[in-house]
Amino acid sequence: MRRLRRWNVLALLAAFALVLAACAQDSTDTTVADTAPDTTVADTAPDTTVADTTPTETTVADMMITTGPGVTEEPCPGGNPDRGCIYLGVLTDESGPFAGASAGLYGGQSLFWATVNAGDGISGAYDVAIPENLKKDTAYQPEKLVADYNTIAEDVAAIAQSLGTPQTLAALPDYTRDSTIAAPMSWWSGWAFEDLVIEFGTGYCFEAMNAIDWAVQAVPAAGRTFATIGILEFPSDYGFDYAAGVKTAAEANGLTVAWEETVIPVSAGGDPAQTEAVAKIVADPADVIILVTGPSETAAIVGGAAQQLGASVPLFIGAAPSWNSALLASAAAPAFELGIYYQSSFVGGWDYDSAGHEKMRQAVTAAGFPANDFFISGWVSQYGLKAALEGAYASGDLSHEGIMNAAFALTDVDYEGMMPSRSFAGDPNDVFPREGVIGGYSADATTGIATVQDFFVGPTAESYEFTEACAG
Amino acid sequence: MTTFLQATVAGLSLASIYMLLALGFVIIYKSMQVLSFAHPAIMLFAAYMVSWFSVDKDLNFWLALALGVVAAGAMGWLAERIAVRPMIGKPLFAIAILTIGLDIAIRTPINNLIGINIRSVGDPWGFGTWQIGGVVVQHRAVAMIVTAFIVGSLLFAFFRYSRVGLAMRATAIDQEVALAQGISVGRIFSLAWIMAGAMAALAGTFASSDLSGLSQSTYIVALKALPAIVVGGLDSIGGAVVGALIIGLAEAYTATYQSQHLSFLGGNFSQVVPYLVLLIVLLIKPYGLFGTEEVERV
Predict the structure, then answer these.
(1) B217 touches chain A (CB under 8 A)
(2) CA distance A173 to A167
(3) What count of Cα atoms within 13 Å lies in the side-chain half-sphere of residue A398?
């Protein structure tokens, strides 16, 4: 149990009396946050909305907060001395195939919480920290992620990043044992059916459906035919889940999937020149080629195909992780300048116009980091956790079970416009987000991708009966 | 025919990189009888240095390349003097294991420097191509093939005709006898690592001039050169050249034709082919096509 300091309680009583007097009808919004010291950057803190878990009556007894692992009365290192600290763990990949993404993802998450802490923190009572010693390099290995989790399980309130689908699936029994919630860093559609996983954005599968539905309109409008599709995919949940969505939408739209080939990631020993994929496109150039790969493979495939086919190269649509702004400076850049590359995503790109994006851009710029889309994923992944922590605090229970129950009850997590708000309470078919956004290559965009279609749900995704993961 | 020629160009490009890497492996093996697993890290280090000089410091690419070659040679020399030299006389497998540690020690900080971005080495070839009878030939491919041919020829002449090359060969055969003949074995070791580093710099720069650029994953290309040296024979310069050509062409032809004609083998079979070739060659000639066969009494 954590007892608030005496002066905090006194301040709370005073604030409570004022609140009761001023707006008794609005008691659901009354939390300890109202007593937090004002800061000059309070307005920049990311906001989330927790509707159902706040007590309707606030008394001193309600402020007796139950705490669990990873929650301390002592402030965070370098944090606000008037607040306690909530520690989160990060299970990332610093030496495996996604090592290149790790710094951006962790950076985005750290900046998110720094911005939250600079404002009200968690309800004005706690800061949130992800210290280096609670960040583990899983090397993208399931067994290592499980082992790493167990080394920090007693020290964390939740997992801010659990990178990889098979890796997170391997850890689910242990997360369940400890009632620990985790934000995954993957967009497998099956997360909709796992309670402890606080996923963000739509899944690969729905992202793909929207991409095809969009292309059915946009490709003919650009003066090209669209009857056949080629798919190049990583042999993983990422590739298979996205490909399942492509095939579903193709069937719904009367299109033919001419071929489907797997691509071994360069980081896993695959051919850097992607000779096989390029040869396939040259031999059988489908109207639209779907890329479910990484940036290195995207550069080699799009660039190699453009070198050999010139102006008759097909259109490409890449899944969100297929792009990196560094492609703008790569030797393949002239291929993208042909205007043949489009991009589906679960979240708005770097230049997207939303309050959340603006806060993220300010934080990244202030920290001196170059613009990179991995910061977006890291940043936006934390809104759900913040809402769960605020909900748990409001219910007076910051134990693992309390945080988990608060997460289950979230009905309106606000991503500040970075993506549509969503609920975690209810049947996946009813609450799982299906919105996607489409971008296209633009030399003027900060990271090379500009929005060409704002968030929408295509007819295939709209009517899809979502009762199980699309693949896997 | 166009498709075949296109695949041949791709295979020769691949072989050029494998060749430069294989030559580095062989130079060290010829002098010390040790397979250096630090070679991929030195290659990555060199490519990063070229990128840093060329892009970050805005130097002319050729100057950046020259500085990268020098830096990689220096890194090879340092690795040999600090880590490998004290191990002389110890079991060869222990030295090989040590080079794995060297690989990690060098590669980890370089990975941190490369970071989350794909980097350019600032090469002048970029996206440029020539159309020759319907075959698309990258400017980069021609540069790679010509460079690999020149470097291979120079190395062959060095080992065949120069006194230092002869000393290196003598050291590889028997270090004690070489010492008795007045050869500074230590200097030979250092020279081998410096030369291998320089080869790695060229290979790393070419590998990073690919459309996919320089990333943390680039080091894997060096590991893919291993089948080439095993097929050619671990201690043969000519073998490294032939092995690289066999592996590069086999990989490219498979990548081009297999999915169309032998699709039942599944996707990405071209990535298996180098190791399949390696297996077949070793079953027939355990010391590789051009490796020195050891005579053992039984």
Answers:
(1) yes
(2) 12
(3) 33
Angle formed at CA A201 by CA A195 and CA A202, multiple of 5 degrees: 85
Burial profile B24-62: b = 16 or more Cβ within 10 angstroms, e = fewer: bbbbbbbbbbbbbbbbbbbbbbbbbbbbbbbbeeebebe
Mind listing the pLDDT tens digit for each residue in B86-127?
887 788 889 889 999 999 999 989 988 887 678 899 999 989
Note the Cα A104 to chain centre separation in Å. 12
Please, which residues have CB within 8 angstroms of residue B247's CB and are 6 or more apart in sequence?
B14, B15, B18, B227, B228, B231, B274, B277
Tokens representing residue A151 in the block: 């080394």
Backbone angles phi, psi at A128, to 5 degrees: -125, 135
Minimum distance, in Å, between the CA of residue A132 and any CA atom of chain B: 15
Q: Return d(Cα A52, Cα A47) in angstroms, integer.
A: 16
**Spatial distance between the Cα atoms of A92 and A105, rounded to a whole number of angstroms:** 9
Q: Which member of A282, A296, A335 has the closest CB to residue B215? A: A296
Q: Give A40: exposed, middle or buried? Use CB within 10 Å, 0-12, 13-18, 19+.
A: exposed
Lowest mean pLDDT among A226-240, A341-355, B177-191: B177-191
Q: H or E element: which one contains A230?
A: strand A228-233
Nearest by CB to residue A276, choosing from B114, B223, B259, is B259
Residue spans of beta strands (DSSP E) within A299-435: 315-318, 341-345, 397-398
Sign of the CA dihedral running A37, A39, A44, A45:
negative
Distances from the Cα of A57 to the Cα of A25, A34, A126, B122, angstroms: 11, 15, 21, 65
- Confidence label for B44 from pLDDT (cuts 50, 70 and 90): very high
The amino acid that residue B144 corresponds to is M
Mind listing the pLDDT tens digit for each residue in A101-120? 888 999 999 999 999 999 99
From the CB of residue A246, how many other CB atoms can be counted at a distance below 10 Å? 27
ipTM of the complex: 0.86
Separation of alpha carbons A375 and A388, rounded Å: 21
pLDDT class for A38, splitting at 50, 70, 90? very low
Nearest-angstrom CA–CA distance, A409 and A392? 10
Does the pTM exceed 0.80?
yes
User: Cβ contact (<8 Å) for A331 and B215?
Assistant: no
